[in-house]
Amino acid sequence: MNRVLADYGLAPIAKLADLSIGDLTLVVGAPETDPLPETADAQYIGAVLWQAENASLPEWINALSGDMPVVWVYSGNPQYSSSDDTLNSVVVLHACKEALAQEGMHVVLTTGHHPLPKSLLPLPANFRHEPYVPGLQMAKRADLLIHHGGYGSCQTGLYAGKPAVILPTYSERLSNARRMEAAGAAQIVAVRHVGGKKQVRSEELRAAVKRVIADPAFSANARQLGEKLQSYGGPPRAARLIAEFSQRAFDS
Hints:
alpha/beta; Rossmann fold
């Protein structure tokens, strides 16, 4: 990398992260989710999330009875490739079906506009599938999120102040999940690799879900961290900082 930089007359770097540092450096998230050295010259802006202004949940989700908790299961694209299991998250859906069928909870499965794998059919009576829901609204409606540990999923749940059970399906997602767990807002359930395939122990997942729902500390911690994320100002503050920086650069 330094040879390339030298070709362009640029100074060498000590580590690749130095390429992400500018005269103004904005960092998404909060110290709990995206830790930096105390000496870092950067400003946190909280969560950067979007949903259409006119977005709404399907009526059947709004009509779910309040006598049972609502669990939102999100896997992203369940099946990126049939030949490579590295990125696939269908294990999240299968694990939830096995662990939560007939449990006393409403389980809403969403797959980000992707079809539900036929291997999951038929769904248990307490399960329903919707290809897409607006994330922030669904997170607010849910009592608990179950997801693969993607950054957007972690931020969406926290912003809504809702705890999670996370099944991290590869390394970056495990890093996100560990920070959520360290903040007391989530519990990790291990995804094991057996014979080249991902597996989750259903009894571990079932126990984790029941524990997070039953223990109010998880919800309280998620709510506290969500309030902190919101306090940083998000995209409006980022836009203001960029405009002020640009004006100073223009004036000078």
